[in-house]
Write a structure and sequence with these properties.
Largest sheet: 2 strands, antiparallel
Number of helices: 6
CATH architecture of the largest domain: Orthogonal Bundle
Number of strands: 2
CATH topology of the largest domain: Arc Repressor Mutant, subunit A
CATH class of the largest domain: Mainly Alpha
Low-confidence stretches: none
Helix content: 55-70%
Order of helices and strands: HHHHEEHH
Mean pLDDT: 84
Radius of gyration: 17 Å
Strand order of the largest sheet: 1-2
Number of domains: 2
Shape: elongated
């Protein structure tokens, strides 16, 4: 017996979710980052909940007005943050809460800062341990 997934969020719902967040093609912020931010915000606001499936990437890309490859890059970013889960034959499911994603984003920023100042990862871990004690 296989488990069941929630039906996908429909295109009208997605359009409503992102209506306040317009992607700006003139912005220096990459479109995939803007698309990821719009979806991250929808998850944070509870408009798309854990366990719900997103529409197919090509439909979601059309609603957001971006190329499918651009949207797929945004979706992979959210997957890497732990917010989405990709399952063959089941689509893309919201799997997490954005709090973890925020921590991951700050961690990436911190690692980048540490590396730019000459600290390696082990040294950064030691610094984190020293301030968390």
């Amino acid at each position: 017996m296989t488990g069941t997934c929630a039906p996908p969020v429909d295109d009208a719902t997605i359009a409503g979710i992102i209506h306040d967040y317009k992607l700006d093609k003139t912005s220096p912020i990459a479109l995939h980052d803007q698309a990821a931010a719009a979806l991250r915000r929808a998850i944070a606001d509870g408009e798309v909940k854990p366990g719900e499936r997103l529409p197919p990437a090509r439909d979601l890309a059309a609603v957001m007005g971006v190329n499918t490859n651009t949207l797929l890059r945004a979706l992979r970013q959210l997957r890497d943050e732990g917010l989405l889960e990709f399952r063959r034959g089941r689509g893309i499911t919201v799997s997490g809460e954005p709090d973890r994603a925020a921590v991951l984003e700050h961690a990436k920023t911190l690692v980048g800062l540490a590396h730019s100042h000459g600290y390696n990862t082990n040294e950064l871990v030691a610094i984190i341990r020293s301030v968390s004690a």
